[in-house]
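Look at a sample.

——
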Amino acid sequence: MRRNRYYPAINKKQLALKGLLLITTLGILSFIFVMWYLLVVTHPYFQIKEVKTIGNKRLTKSEILTWLKLYPGQSLLNLHLRWLKQRLISYPLIEEANVSRKWPDRLIISLKEREPLALIYDGPRLWSIDRKGVWFYLKEYPDLPIITGAYRDSPYLKETIDLLVGFKHKKWGISLAEISKIHLDQDLGVTFYTTSGTEVYLGKEHYKEKLCSLHKILIYLNQTGLKDIKRVDLNQVNKVYVGLG
């Protein structure tokens, strides 16, 4: 039987035509999809018309939008909410954040700002610090105790923050508003000063036990009418030295 020498050549041409047709079809479909996507994304119906911010006290809406790099006319479809959330949390003043869409044209930004617990003087700049030990900068300084002699990995800083949280809740009969300054010394430990001018030396350890003793001493001195206290030495756990004016 005689073979058809042109049969393989015909198959190759058919395969080439089919391949070209498939590529052309995919190209057309891809083009249609891209054009449809661009049409939807750029449609005015999905453009952001309102941004609502919740929980911002010190940060303005304008500052938040600038930090997030949001601009007028941006499409709600084209936003990456996870990136926006991470971007917000990276701002030093923001502790928690969440971003959500409200279709078709609203963006809702919820955040929790850090609450300053004290101020820290570090070189030429005055920082704020919260209960978690995070440093951040505020444009206006609140009326809070100032920590001196501290740096970011300073000894006794974590213990000092715990003490300030206790003062905030008036745990030892002294409120945070009554503390004017806390000084940290690598060799001597912690000393704090009250707004009435009393110096209280706590030393290097057992702060909570010492402050419980101080609370009892203050109650006793108030009962006896002795209120002009200049210095209290609590370096030793079981002994309290009081200097009167």
About this structure: The first strand starts at residue 50 and ends at 54. The first helix runs from residue 7 to 41. The mean pLDDT is 87. The chain is about 35% helix and 25% strand.
